[in-house]
């Protein structure tokens, strides 16, 4: 009853505002069609749900906490929520603030994340190549602030939502990334001026799956169907499955034997003679490679 | 024998190749193998779902669109959806209909998803308590209706193509070890927005039509605090609740003449309503399936 009321209140907070500019926080989205729809049909966008609203509001609270922690640590914070406009490309944005470090005002963005994400991200490349689209948009956002403010570097402050821990990820001004974002903004402006909606991109689950314009964009989904293998592969897998308990038992015994003979040079037991010695392994770095990760699920039945 | 000869003559005249017995057997074998493979894949696909992909609606497991899409990815189903059709109905209400084509293994079906602003699900209200009134249809979010029709179309297409529309709890238990107790029951008014589970411990359940919803207010003699109680009339019973949102659901169900499932407990003063959910209709009105 209490939670229901809270969720109802959160639902009332969910609103969609008109979009008249190319927002820095969005320009990292790779789909031009999305950007054009965001500008021309923003009122038709599917609104996020109250659970996501809770996350957004938590993010805002975390930003406040982070700024407070920065100040408590003795950092001077300036130009909090300073708006930026790049009229030539109709790009706008609002930086979280600038932190004064050795006389340099460094733009910063506060982001909150899960334990899982927190552990995975350490460099700006981890964000650029991040698993999630929202994460891949972060570098473009901060980079645009750097470009608009003529700053050589900025910093992300990530806060782990589970533990409260912080992690800083520094970013140098990236001209290639900047060029990409500017070109995207130019393309969006051109499409809007000429009344053209860019073609629908190939369906991408990460990008299109949760897109708020999916019901307008109507991307065609091309699935990758199963290949029916009629060779003896199934027999091999069945045999493998049948042998699995024995293999496990073998491994168990092998581990126990290793443990019991460790450090003993020569042993005679029953019909077996066992010798052993210590072998030093050289340190080596594994070469980068790729491998095929397989997952076998038994459907059941014959 | 004469008949057989005649058939062959006709086929030769039309330029069609005769289908030999061997070809038929081979085709049948291939079809059998394909069906067998599909059944296996279906079992695996259901195995890949989890309890969050299903909800209990009217005592039956219902695969949510998110779950349907998960299975579709596994199967490699392809689809394309046409531009929606908007129809204006009486009272300024409107409906959206999407038509989609869903393909797998050379077979394509057509499925439709329809949603109307008349559904209680989309209605909007203003005010509280006795002052609470329904807003006109112009206040209904057309985007919500449209999006809902779209997801309805995708859900219909995928589940119809795979033949998993009428799965039982036995199927779920067997293939995915998911039991009815694991599933959340979705308040239909909020479905697509929240999967709020409703607790069902030590309760009874009825399914029927809400005939009336009344409100009673008073003051607690001890605490001097005001209270508002709602009485929901359904299935020849009176159910009592202090939850305004439950009363809203009941009112929406009454107005839309839709069935509800009511979970209640026998309390000191009668039947205490624990949860109420609007049951989704068996299928959209214009739903159809065309094999090609």
Give your account of this protein's structure:
The complex is a heterodimer of chains A (302) and B (292). With 302 residues, chain A is α+β, with helices and mostly antiparallel strands. Helices cover 43% and strands 17% of the residues of chain A. Chain A has helices at 2-13, 32-40, 50-72, 115-120, 124-128, 133-149, 175-194, 205-208, 214-217, 233-261, and strands at residues 22-23, 77-78, 82-86, 91-95, 97-101, 104-113, 153-160, 166-172, 266-269, 272-275. In chain A, helix 1 packs across helix 3 and helix 6 crosses helix 7. The longest helix of chain A has 29 residues, at 233-261. The model of chain A has no long low-confidence stretch (mean pLDDT 91). Chain B has 292 residues and is an alpha+beta fold. Helix content of chain B is 32%, strand content 30%. Chain B has helices spanning 2-14, 21-48, 65-75, 142-162, 169-176, 244-256, and strands at 54-57, 60-63, 78-81, 85-88, 94-104, 107-116, 125-126, 133-134, 204-219, 226-234, 237-241, 259-267, 270-278. In chain B, the strands form four sheets. Chain B has a five-stranded mixed β-barrel with strand order 9-10-11-13-12. In chain B, strands 3, 4, 5 and 6 form a four-stranded antiparallel β-sheet that branches. A two-stranded antiparallel ribbon of chain B has the order 1-2. Chain A binds chain B through residues 1, 4-5, 7-8, 11, 43-47, 49-51, 205, 209, 214-215, 218, 220-226, 228, 230, 297, 299-301, and chain B through 33-34, 37, 39-41, 43-44, 47-48, 69, 72-73, 75-84, 98, 104-105, 142-144, 146-147, 149-151, 175, 193-194, 196, 242-243, 245.
């Amino acid at each position: 009853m209490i939670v229901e009321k809270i969720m109802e209140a959160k639902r009332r907070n969910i609103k969609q505002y008109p979009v008249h500019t190319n927002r820095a926080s969005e320009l990292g989205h790779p789909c031009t069609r999305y950007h054009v729809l965001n500008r021309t049909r923003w009122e038709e966008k599917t609104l996020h749900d109250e659970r996501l609203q809770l996350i957004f509001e938590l993010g805002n609270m975390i930003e406040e906490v982070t700024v407070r922690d920065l100040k408590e640590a003795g950092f001077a914070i300036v130009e909090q929520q300073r708006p930026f406009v790049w009229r030539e490309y109709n790009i706008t944005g609002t930086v979280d603030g600038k932190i004064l470090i050795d006389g340099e005002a460094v733009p910063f963005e506060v982001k909150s994340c899960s334990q899982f994400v927190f552990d995975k991200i350490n460099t700006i490349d981890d964000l650029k190549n991040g698993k999630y689209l929202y994460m891949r948009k972060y570098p473009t956002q901060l980079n645009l602030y750097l470009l608009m403010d003529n700053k050589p570097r900025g910093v992300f402050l990530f806060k782990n939502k589970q533990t409260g821990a912080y992690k800083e990820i520094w970013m140098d001004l990236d001209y290639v990334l900047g060029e990409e974002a500017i070109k995207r903004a130019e393309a969006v402006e051109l499409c809007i001026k000429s009344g053209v909606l860019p073609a629908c991109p190939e369906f991408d689950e990460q990008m299109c799956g949760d897109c708020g314009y999916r019901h307008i964009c109507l991307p065609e989904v091309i699935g990758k169907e199963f290949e029916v293998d009629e060779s003896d592969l199934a027999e091999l897998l069945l045999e493998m499955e049948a042998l699995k308990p024995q293999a496990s038992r073998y491994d168990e015994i092998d581990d126990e034997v290793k443990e019991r003979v460790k450090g003993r040079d020569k042993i005679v037991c029953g019909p077996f003679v066992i010798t052993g010695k210590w072998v030093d392994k050289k340190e080596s770095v594994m070469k980068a490679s790729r491998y095929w990760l397989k997952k076998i699920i038994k459907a059941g039945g014959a | 024998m004469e008949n057989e000869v005649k058939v062959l003559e006709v086929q030769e005249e039309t330029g069609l190749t005769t289908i030999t017995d061997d070809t038929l057997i081979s085709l049948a074998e291939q079809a059998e193998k394909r069906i067998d493979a599909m059944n296996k894949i279906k079992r695996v696909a259901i195995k890949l779902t989890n309890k969050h992909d299903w909800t209990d609606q009217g005592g039956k497991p219902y695969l949510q669109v998110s779950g349907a899409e998960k299975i579709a990815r596994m199967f490699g189903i392809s689809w394309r959806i046409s531009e929606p059709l908007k129809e204006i109905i009486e009272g300024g209400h409107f409906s959206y209909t999407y038509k989609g084509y869903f393909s797998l293994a050379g077979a394509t079906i057509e499925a439709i998803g329809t949603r109307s602003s008349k559904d209680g699900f989309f209605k909007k209200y203003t005010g509280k308590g006795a002052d609470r009134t329904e807003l006109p249809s112009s206040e209904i979010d057309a985007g919500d209706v449209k999006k809902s029709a779209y997801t309805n179309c995708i859900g219909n297409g995928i589940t119809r193509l795979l033949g998993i529309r009428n799965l039982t709890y036995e199927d779920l238990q067997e293939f995915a070890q998911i039991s009815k107790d694991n599933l959340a029951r979705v308040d239909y008014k909020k479905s697509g927005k929240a999967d709020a589970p409703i607790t069902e411990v030590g309760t009874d359940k009825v399914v029927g039509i809400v005939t009336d919803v009344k409100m009673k207010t008073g003051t607690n003699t001890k605490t001097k605090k005001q209270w508002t109680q709602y009485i929901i009339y359904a299935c020849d019973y009176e159910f009592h609740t202090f939850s305004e949102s439950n009363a809203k659901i009941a009112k929406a169900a009454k107005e839309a003449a839709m069935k509800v499932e009511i979970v209640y407990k026998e309390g000191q003063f009668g039947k205490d309503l624990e949860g109420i959910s609007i049951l989704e209709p068996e299928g959209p009105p214009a739903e159809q399936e065309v094999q090609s």
